């Protein structure tokens, strides 16, 4: 029987090598797991209808993020419009924090919805990946409209209370808040008609169902380029933007109103650190990509990249601002 036994000395001698080999395999396991992400398609939720500014930039962005994520990544854009963006934002916040659901969150809606009513999210419900777009507000009218300035619009609205209808992307949106500020500054009352996204507002102004389309300047310029007969009355930026250098600001026309929409990418709170890092880096590289920048410019999407920490600070400041505004001028339609 002794010829089949392994000497004790040989077994003891082999133990260190076996231990090192096992340790090496254990050490490689997390690396292999990280390298595998993503292993299936990633859903990117857009809280507005197809064809709007957020939807368009999301579809462009997704293709570049796929490239920078690697591993044959696939990102599928899903539209979940309604309730001023609350349906889509809530869907992102409620998803499993596994890296397979991300989405765009838009200000001020992601901040104002939880202020005005009970919501399933706040801005702190998300792992922020970075901001992408900062698009100033604007008033557009149909090209056949008699109004060529904000002053002319205000004069008609004052003489005809409630006769001027205006469309927005929802209650508490940047469009809605800005128009309420305009009403207060001009001493007028207009008729609010909320829609599920900029694409629906666009259809309404193109078919003359509304008098004013309160929409971001980038979206308005994009629709005009596509052939919609629009006239823009003013942009809500501090100074004239490069997008529309010939268009006066609201302030230049006597209405001290500054309003814009940040459009950034977020995920459910609690992502695994390695997954979060991969998504943050892919987004940053996308926004820095010259081809992406050129495509964004062709869609009149004004880029303003903010990394997660700066994005969080911007949202925190905005939250405080809108909470103070709610106390002064509640915006919920009665």
From TrEMBL:
Source domain of life is Bacteria
Q: Alphabetically list the UniProt keywords.
A: Signal
The residues that cross the membrane are: none
InterPro entries listed in its UniProt record: BUG, Bug_dom1, TAT_signal
Q: Does the keyword Cell membrane apply?
A: no
Q: What Pfam family is a match for this entry?
A: TctC
Q: Where is the signal peptide?
A: 1-35
Question: Of which family is this protein a member?
Answer: Belongs to the UPF0065 (bug) family.
What is the protein name for this chain? Tripartite tricarboxylate transporter substrate binding protein
Origin species: Ramlibacter lithotrophicus
Q: What is the lineage of its organism?
A: Bacteria, Pseudomonadati, Pseudomonadota, Betaproteobacteria, Burkholderiales
């Amino acid at each position: 029987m002794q010829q089949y036994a392994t000497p004790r000395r040989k077994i003891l001698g082999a133990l260190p090598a076996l231990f090192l080999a096992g340790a090496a395999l254990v050490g490689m396991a997390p690396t292999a797991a990280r390298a595998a992400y993503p292993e299936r398609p990633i859903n990117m939720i857009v809280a507005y209808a197809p064809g709007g500014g957020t939807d368009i930039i999301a579809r462009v962005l997704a293709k570049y993020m796929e490239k920078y994520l690697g591993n044959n990544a696939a990102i599928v854009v899903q539209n979940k419009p309604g309730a001023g963006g609350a349906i889509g934002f809530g869907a992102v916040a409620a998803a499993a924090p596994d890296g397979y659901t991300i989405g765009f969150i838009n200000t001020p809606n992601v901040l104002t919805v939880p202020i005005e009513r009970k919501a399933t999210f706040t801005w702190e419900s998300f792992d922020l990946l970075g901001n992408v777009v900062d698009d100033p507000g604007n008033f557009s009218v149909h090209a056949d409209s008699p109004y060529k300035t904000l002053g002319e619009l205000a004069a008609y609205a004052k003489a005809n209370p409630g006769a001027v209808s205006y469309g927005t992307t929802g209650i508490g949106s940047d469009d809605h808040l800005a128009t309420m500020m305009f009403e207060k500054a001009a001493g007028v009352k207009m008729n609010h008609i909320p829609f599920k996204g900029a694409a629906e507002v666009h259809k309404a102004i193109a078919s003359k169902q509304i008098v004013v389309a309160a929409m971001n300047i980038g979206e308005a310029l994009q629709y005009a380029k596509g052939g919609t007969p629009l006239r823009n009355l003013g942009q809500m930026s501090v100074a004239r933007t490069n997008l529309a250098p010939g268009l006066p600001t609201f302030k230049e026309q006597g209405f001290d109103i500054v309003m814009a929409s940040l459009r950034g990418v977020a995920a459910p709170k609690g992502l695994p650190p390695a997954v979060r890092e991969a998504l943050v880096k892919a987004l940053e590289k996308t926004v820095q990509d010259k081809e992406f920048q050129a495509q964004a410019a062709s869609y009149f999407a004004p880029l303003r990249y903010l990394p997660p920490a700066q994005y969080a600070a911007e949202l925190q400041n905005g939250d405080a601002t809108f909470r103070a505004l709610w106390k002064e001028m509640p915006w919920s339609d009665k």
